[in-house]
Amino acid sequence: MAKRKVVPGCEMLAADPPPWLSKARLGLVAHQASVDRSLTHVKEIVARAGGNLRCLFSPQHGFHGEKQANMVESDHGRDPDLDIPIYSLYGEVRRPTPEMLSSIDVLLVDLQDVGTRVYTYGATLGLCLEAAAEEGIPMVVLDRPNPVGGYAVEGNLLREDHRSFVGLYPLPMRHGFTPAELALYVARQRKLDCDLRAVPLHDWSRSLFFPGTSLPWVPPSPNMPSWETALLYPGMVLLEGCNLSEGRGTTLPFHLFGAPFIDPKPMLRLLEEASLQGVAFRPVRFEPVFDKWAGAPCNGFQIHVTKSTMVRPYRLGLTILRACLELYPRHFRWLPPPYEYERRKLPIDILLGDGNIRKKLEAGTEILDIEEDWREELESFDEECLAYWLY
Questions:
Q1: Which of 61, 202, 251, 294 is 20–30 Å from 98 (CA)?
Q2: What CATH number corresponds to the domain at position 282?
Q3: CA 389, CA 205: separation in Å to the nearest integer?
């Protein structure tokens, strides 16, 4: 894979600071992965460039990425280096309040996303944009690469009646946008009257996966330890809606899956019959130390990526679910709510973004036939998203 020296938006901002940077009162939405290639955090970069930071905002998992999984909230705090408040956007609120925004003139956003609809940083980005628009505050997105490339899109579009914090906007599961492009899409979709600006990446190409950027990978959340995890995540995250372990509580989250009731041999036969490209399955036995099946020996598989450009993770996740429904009807279960603050719909339904897909899986519908149902809408999205591409 060819490599480039991609320059993230935070570095581009520091290299050519706009006049407002030193004049405006700034708020910054960031997390532990908001760093440049030398691993300097964006709060330091902005401060060194003369920025007048008045407050910080943290998304899910906390400003330092210390919080684990879903609905593990973080409190407001104070940054010891800059002596300014850190407002949690994953606690008592999930969008900035007018009071939080009253002390700033410009809101900066620098979040490493993974290009997946259900990854909550996209929701935080959109809610920040909506809040800034309501208060008449400009929002500037310091752009970052989509670690799994900008061309491949996959999955059904979210249905309006399945909106939640793991899906606020009509996107496919794998959407192909960078954070700045996603913000442009949200602004148009929500018809926001906003002052939205982007500081683009330098020398990023949509064909690049993260290793081709020459940037260091910093886990944007505790269970996203590698860029390959981000590649598998759009499908393996579906397992959060059932009683299979998705590898949380192990050193290979979203690469491992299994449960005590899994018999690897028939499962492997169904997975191999599905002809899933770009991946191989190795039978394993593992024991999570927390989360589902904590302390229980699980039979399952490690997913090995053999050719990243050929992986279709959403198809992979659906195939695993359908196989379990067929092989283990007495043991396999969908988990009940709550999940990410949704207290009525099944977690699997809000993850899928369409409850009819679960019903088709339960009915034994072939995955390729399920995919055919959304082929036209995905092709339309693929054409529409060209209007938001910056690269």
A1: 61
A2: 3.90.1150.140
A3: 11
Contact (CB, 8 A) for 129 and 141: no
User: Does the structure show a pLDDT above 70 at 2?
Assistant: no
> Beta strands 298-305 and 256-259: pairing type?
antiparallel
Cis? peptide before 283, omega within 30° of 0: no
Residues 335, 355 within the same domain = yes
The structural domain count of the chain equals 2
User: 167: helix, coil or strand?
Assistant: strand
Domain containing 79 — which CATH number? Answer: 3.40.50.12170
Position 1 scores a pLDDT of 55
Q: Are strands 77-79 and 84-88 parallel, antiparallel or unpaired?
A: antiparallel
Q: Is the pLDDT of residue 138 over 70?
A: yes
Q: How many CB atoms lie within 10 A of CB 226?
A: 17
> pLDDT for 163-183, tens place per residue?
999 999 999 999 999 999 999
How many angstroms separate the CA atoms of 368 and 274, rounded? 10
Q: Could you give the count of Cα atoms lying within 13 Å of 186 in the half-sphere of its Cβ?
A: 28
Residue 205 shares a structural domain with residue 260: no
CB 2 within 8 A of CB 209: no
Write down the pTM of the prediction.
Answer: 0.96
Domain ranges, residue 13: 9-216
The pLDDT tens digits of the residues spanning 282-309 come to 999 999 999 999 999 999 999 999 999 9
Pairing of strands 52-58, 298-305: unpaired
What pLDDT does residue 69 have? 78
Q: Please state, as a whole number, how many other Cβ atoms lie within 10 Å of the Cβ of residue 276.
A: 21
Average pLDDT over the chain, rounded to whole?
Answer: 97
Cis check for the bond before 338: say yes or no (omega within 30 of 0).
Answer: yes
Claim to verify: residue 236 and residue 304 sit in the same structural domain: yes
What lies within 8 Å, CB to CB, of 6 at 6+ separation is 145, 201, 202, 203, 204, 208, 213, 214, 215
Are 92 and 153 in a shared domain?
Answer: yes
Asked if residue 127 lies in contact with residue 93, where contact means CB atoms within 8 angstroms, the answer is: no
Whether 166 and 245 map to the same domain: the answer is: no
Hey, what are 297's tokens?
């020996």
Same domain, 205 and 240: no
Q: 236 and 167 in one domain?
A: no
